[in-house]
Write a structure and sequence with these properties.
Blueprint (H helix, E strand, L loop, with lengths): L1 H21 L3 E6 L3 E6 L10 H7 L3 E8 L12 H15 L5 E6 L1 H10 L6 E7 L5 H5 L13 H8 L2 H12 L6 H13 L2 H13 L13 E6 L5 H11 L7 E5 L6 H4 L1 H13 L2
Parallel strand pairs: 2-3, 2-4, 4-5, 5-6, 6-7
Antiparallel strand pairs: 1-3
Helix pairs in contact: 2-12, 7-8
Length: 282
């Protein structure tokens, strides 16, 4: 009997591990009909952040709304997380025969959209980036070297071991830097708390390691960037984007004044108006 129990437990553990390995790196909801648009949210953010925009798009466009593994209650995947996300999105575009697809991405989602635009096999018509950089790590670390960013670090270990109360305090503090609206800060905080903790910690390491600055030379489609003016001000924002996108042949930079990082939450009507204008000019 003991052997049977041990065997059963072994099978159950094996099944659990295999299920996690086989879980999806991306989850996609499709709304509307017409030319395809793939919408990729930022770090910790579920795809439903795009719903207000999709309501304006779905009569003319087929909207593919992405939620990434580990976010919005979705199951996590094995690490490294971000390479799996990138390759899964690339495979999704190819497997669903999305032609002349527009990519819209916020923050991390914009970085991923930029990576997709460098892939020769994909038929991308344009990319719209919302407060997104090709190398966020280079902005945070003066002597940036992706190879030095490891999962095993004192900072990561501290985040992993924080109790729920302390982690909520951390999430609250972070949310205040991402939106100017108190009501939206609460929403952002809750998205952070809903995120799988390991994905939050190790996934962010993946994000900081990604450096696409050299790859920008491969982007040949129209690029529109909507950047937040706060908290640094327009002058610094212009200089930051000029430095980060120096290798991109051409792009149009639009500044969202009096807005934090979550432009679609701080200035929802203006954001939708700008996006529709960009799409109408394509």
């Amino acid at each position: 009997m003991k052997k049977i129990i041990v065997l059963f437990v072994s099978i159950a553990v094996s099944f659990s591990i295999q299920a996690k390995i086989n879980s999806q790196a991306i989850h996609v909801e499709v709304k509307g009909e017409g030319d395809p648009i793939l919408l990729i949210p930022g770090f910790t953010v579920p795809g439903n952040i795009w719903y207000p925009l999709v309501e304006k798009l779905e009569s003319k466009y087929e909207c593919h709304i992405v939620t990434l593994a580990g976010f919005g209650g979705k199951e996590p995947v094995e690490f490294p997380w971000l390479p799996k996300v990138n390759e899964s999105l690339k495979a999704y575009i190819l497997n669903n025969n999305l032609e002349k697809v527009t990519l819209i991405g916020h923050s991390l989602g914009g970085t991923v959209a930029t990576w997709l635009a460098t892939q020769e096999e994909l038929d991308i018509s344009q990319i719209i980036l919302i407060d997104a950089l090709p190398a966020s790590g280079a902005l945070m670390f003066p002597n940036f070297d992706p190879e030095t960013l490891m999962y095993e670090s004192s900072y990561n270990n501290q985040l992993l071991t924080l109790d729920d109360s302390m982690f909520e305090q951390t999430a609250t503090a972070m949310s205040k830097n991402l939106s100017l609206k108190v009501s939206e800060q609460e929403k952002i905080k809750n998205w952070i708390l809903e995120t799988d903790r390991k994905t939050y910690v190790y996934g962010y390491t993946d994000y900081l390691k990604l450096d696409l600055r050299e790859d920008l030379k491969k982007v040949s489609v129209p690029v529109n960037i909507i950047a937040a003016s706060e908290p640094y001000g327009k002058e610094i924002v212009h200089q930051t984007y000029k430095n980060q996108y120096a290798n991109m042949k051409d792009y149009n930079l639009i500044i969202a004044e009096e807005s934090g990082h979550f432009i679609m939450l701080d200035k929802p009507d203006w954001f939708i108006e700008q996006t529709l204008l960009i799409l109408s000019n394509q």
